[in-house]
Amino acid sequence: MKTKVLIVEDEADLAVITSIHLEKAGHQTRCATTCQEALEYLTQEMYDLVVMDEMLPDGTGHDVCAKMQKMTWADGRCPPVLFTSCEPDSFTIIKALSSGGDDYMVKPIHYPEFLARVEALLRRSGKHNQSEGAHMRQFATFSLDTNTHQILREGQAEELSPVEYRLLCHLIDHPNTLLLYDALYQSVWDSDSLGDNRTVMVHISNLRKKIDPYGSGVIATVRNAGYIFNHK
């Protein structure tokens, strides 16, 4: 069954482009252009995710988000909210997230990163898209089957270990972002590295051999700092 995404965006062209990207990724979409329309749609139908513009003709996205937190939901949980805005300042971001938002992206939207964040939010909320083919994630040098935890490359399938799978998913969920050694260890192993980065390095090395054996830079090293997953 396809996940349902409500796009709250008053710029018609941007709403259409966002909808196209989401539907190509296997999601079902509906668009609202005002706060009132968004709230009406949310009371009529269940959505798995809301992509929320911050500035709307009749109010702000965080006003809608705050009202969503007070609504009664059939499954007992408010759908996650991904804010989009032209405002990069910390005050706006903090206000949006404090109103109940789960993530925030500054326009113009980089859609590969946008889709990665959408999938991460859906996965964390337990509402990941289960439609046909939705378990396959495509990248420049490999594909990832999230059902079997296998890497598909050049017609060959290779199993990932549980740690390699968690590590790769964490990298995918944070594309084009410097992930520091200690933070990466904390997120994947759920403990403190105590300054020993060798465990992370070994697993990154093993992962590279499986997803990028020719060294095209899918996982880039930032010396003495960490790694960047180059989403392509």
Task: Please give a structural write-up.
The chain contains eight helices and 14 strands. The chain is of the alpha/beta class and 232 residues long. α2 packs parallel to α3 (61-70) and α6 crosses α8.
What is the name of the CATH architecture of the largest domain? 3-Layer(aba) Sandwich
| CATH H-level superfamily title of the largest domain | Response regulator
SSE run:
EHEHEEEHEHEHEEEEHEHHEE
N→C terminal distance: 27 Å
The low-pLDDT segments are none
Q: For the residues shown, what is the average pLDDT?
A: 88
Cα-atom radius of gyration: 19 Å
The helix count comes to: 8
Inertia-based shape? globular
User: Strand-residue fraction?
Assistant: 15-25%
Proportion of residues in helical segments: 25-40%
Structural class: alpha/beta
Q: What keywords describe this structure?
A:
232 residues, alpha/beta, Rossmann fold, Arc Repressor Mutant, subunit A, 2 domains, 5-stranded parallel beta sheet, 4-stranded antiparallel beta sheet, 8 helices, 22% strand, globular
